[in-house]
Amino acid sequence: MTQVSTLLTGRGLVESPRWHGERLYFSDWTAGEVVAVDRAGRSEVVARVPSLPLCTAWLPDDRLLIVSSAEGRLLRRQPDGSLVEYVDLGIPGWNDIIADGRGNTYVNRADFDPMAGEDVKPGSVHLAAPDGSVREVADDIAFPNGMAVTADDATLIVADSYRHQLLAFDIDADGTLLRRRVWADLGEGVPDGICIDAENAVWYADVPNRRCVRVAEGGTVLRTVPVDRGAFACVLGGPDRSTLFVTAARWQGMTETEMVAPGTGQVLAVPVEVPGAGRP
C-alpha cells in the first residue's frame, strides 16, 4: 500500500514544489506567497508576490528566481529577502520555469487566458539567458505546463496538458532547443508539474485524475500514487531525494472565482524507491 503522509495543510492553490538545501519550497498562488517548509512541517513565508501563476526555480549558484506573471518579470530573491528584477519578459502571462546547470532559464506560457474562458491558442517556451536576453525557443505547445531538465543538462522535458503528452527537446550549448519529439503519450493523463528520477523516468502530477504517475519514455506506466484531491505538481526531495512531495488541493474549475476550495491546499509526502535526478 502506498504511504501518503501530509506535511502541511490549510493552504490554497499550491504549486511549484522545489527541494533546496534542507527544505521544500512551494508557491501558494491563492495567497501570493512562496513558502519554505522542513520535514517537521515548520514553515515560513520567504517571498510575497501577488501573481497567478507564481512559479519558481533555483539557479545553479543558489539564487531563487520567481515568475511575476502579472508583471511579465523574473524576480531574484536577494540574501536579505528582498526581490529585484532579474529579467524583463516584456509581457504578462507566464507559467512554469526551470533553470539548467548552465544558468539558462526556461519560462513557458499559454497564448490564451484559460481563466477568462478564451479559446485555446498554442503556447511557447522562451529562454532567458544569463546575459538578460529573452527569445522564443519552442512553439506550438497547446498548454505548456511543468518542465524538467535531465541530470546531464542535455534534455528539457515539457508537459503539454491539453495534448496529454510529455515533449522532449535537446538543449544546445547556447540554450537553443533542438530535435523536438514526443517523449510519452499519456492517454487520458493530464500532466501538470513534473520531475525526473535517476532511472530517467518522469513523475507527473494530474489534477483531474487525482494522482501522480511515474512513466518511462514511450509512456509505459511504472507506478501510480492516488490522492484524494487534484495533484498539481511534484518533486523528488529529502536528504537522499527519495521522497515524492506533492502539492494538491480540491479543484473547482479554471473559470471559477476560486479555482480550488479554500483551505484545501496540502503538501503530501510519499516514499519512493528510485531517487530524484536533474532539475527541479
Descriptive overview:
- This is SMP-30/gluconolactonase/LRE family protein.
- Keywords: Hydrolase, Metal-binding, Zinc.
- GO terms for molecular function: hydrolase activity; metal ion binding.
- InterPro entries: 6-blade_b-propeller_TolB-like, SGL, SMP-30, SMP-30/CGR1_Lactonase.
- A divalent metal cation binds at residues 15, 145, 192.
- The protein is an all-beta fold.
- The chain has a single domain (5-271), classed as Neuraminidase.
- It has no helices and 24 strands.
- The strands form six sheets. A four-stranded antiparallel β-sheet has the order 1-24-23-22, with no helix packed on it. A four-stranded antiparallel β-sheet has the order 2-3-4-5, with no helix packed on it. Strands 6-7-8-9 form a four-stranded antiparallel β-sheet, with no helix packed on it.
- A hairpin with a 5-residue loop joins β22 (230-237) and β23 (243-249).
